[in-house]
Design brief:
Two copies of one chain form a homodimer. The first copy, chain A, is α+β, with helices and mostly antiparallel strands. In chain A, 41% of the residues lie in helices and 17% in strands. Among the domains of chain A are: 60 residues, Winged helix-like DNA-binding domain superfamily/Winged helix DNA-binding domain (Arc Repressor Mutant, subunit A, Orthogonal Bundle), CATH 1.10.10; 74 residues, Ferrous iron transport protein A (FeoA) (SH3 type barrels, Roll). The first copy, chain A, contains eight helices and eight strands; from the N terminus they run H-H-H-E-E-H-H-H-E-E-H-E-E-E-H-E. Chain A has a six-stranded antiparallel sheet. A two-stranded antiparallel ribbon of chain A has the order 1-2. In chain A, helix 1 packs across helix 2, helix 1 crosses helix 4 and helix 2 packs across helix 3. Chain A starts with a helix and ends with a strand. Chain A binds a DNA duplex (30 and 30 nucleotides) through helix 3. Chains A, B: One of its GO terms (cellular component) is cytoplasm.
DNA sequence: ATAAAAGTTTAGGTTTGTCTAAATTAAATT
DNA sequence: AATTTAATTTAGACAAACCTAAACTTTTAT
């Protein structure tokens, strides 16, 4: 089995690489994991010896097939637990990440299967992120960043790509959640921010940073 | 916060001491935790420095008040998760211990509160062990070991004091679970085993080892 | 009461995962 | 193309939690 530390590295590599596609840098990982680059080098040697990553010194890492399988299993567990916390224990979407971060490391195949069943095989977690299937598939849905909408265009929020409580609490304050109807009212070319009407109700101005993290369907 | 290793020592001390009453020996702990006595000495020094135990070299340990509070919190979490696994995820009573052993270390006050609520504030876990309350009370019920019943006496199984899968699977085979009605048919003085009728149905002979681990009410 | 046995602790070592500081390699700039 | 800068790796240390072997207490038994 893999240690919690190893699992966290694998998850970080997976996320930084854009779902396993590209190679990832040592500093990128040290930033994401809040460790020093030297520690990352150490761990990459170790993961490489276990054939979980392809590692070429000074040229970054990529997950092996096995590494990707492991990554998807952890992410599956993380997202299933998030669904559990929100749907069954009435957590809010800004409270779940930290707890799921711990639960994802519990080792039991049976537990994951039964949890999935208990939750009714959910397809997405409370942030709209897709849940990898038991077979290791990660079905990506059609969706676009709110930043890409033009004036007048509409969309329904289906995903937010940032699980930090501060960001999610900001969205709560603004009134944005999964399922919220949005429409672009105006574009401010100066900084690429957009004025967005929320549920045909009030309207707010969202910075381009925020716009890149909110995803919508039916554009 | 306390590490998983520290929590496991605290739990072991609590259990070996008979819920905190008596002092516990180094070898007792090393047996229970499957470590060497030398490792136990190290850890006891550490726990003592944190004021979680009273430790007098060569004369055993006891939990401090704080240590007991910590122990009860861990046991509360362990038993709540066991209830969850059995009642919500359809685990059998012999499958839950190992998984709960991992889940008990997840740190989140909110999680424990909400889980307790979700489960309807259960009083006992799937083995009949009482669940410490949020306030740190451990309500012990009236019950006696099956070994103490005389011929003809009846009882209803309310608790089994051994969570090892092998033991629980043995009980499954014999047909004993929580709620099962038993009656002592005969006593074999040679080895203190008893012939027990199960649900007024078949009858089996149980060794005194086993009889000490099964608890009943309505004697 | 003393010697042997049993239990416990200390000393010194290992592994995992981290760190700092120094050395090395790659990338960017002139 | 050479040199500066940035990124990365190696070397050497450290804390946690474990180990073995040796030393020390306590208990037990003669």
């Amino acid at each position: 089995m893999h240690s919690t530390a190893e699992e966290n590295y694998i998850k970080a590599i997976y996320k930084l690489s854009g779902n396993g596609a590209n190679a990832v840098s040592t500093t990128g990982l040290s930033d994401m994991l809040a460790t020093k680059p030297a520690s990352v080098s150490d761990m990459l040697r170790k993961l490489s010896a276990k054939d979980l990553v392809h590692y070429v010194k000074y040229h970054g890492v990529q997950l092996t097939e096995e590494g990707q399988r492991v990554a998807l299993k952890i992410i599956r567990k993380h997202r299933l637990w998030e669904v559990f916390l929100v749907q069954k224990l009435n957590f809010t979407w800004d409270e779940v990440h930290e707890v799921a971060e711990q639960m994802e490391h519990v080792k039991s195949e049976l537990l994951v299967q039964r949890l999935d069943e208990f939750l009714g095989h959910p397809r997405v977690d409370p942030h709209g992120d897709p849940i990898p299937t038991e077979a290791g598939e990660l079905p990506e849905m059609e969706q676009r960043a709110l930043a890409s909408l033009e004036v007048e265009q509409k969309g329904v929020v289906c995903r937010v790509k940032d699980s930090q409580p501060a960001f999610l609490q900001y969205l709560n304050r603004v009134g944005i959640q999964i399922g919220t109807q949005l429409q672009v009212v105006d574009k401010i070319p100066y900084d690429n921010s957009l004025e967005i009407s929320i549920n045909k109700n009030k309207s707010v101005i969202l910075s381009s940073d925020v716009l890149e993290k909110i995803f919508v369907i039916n554009p």
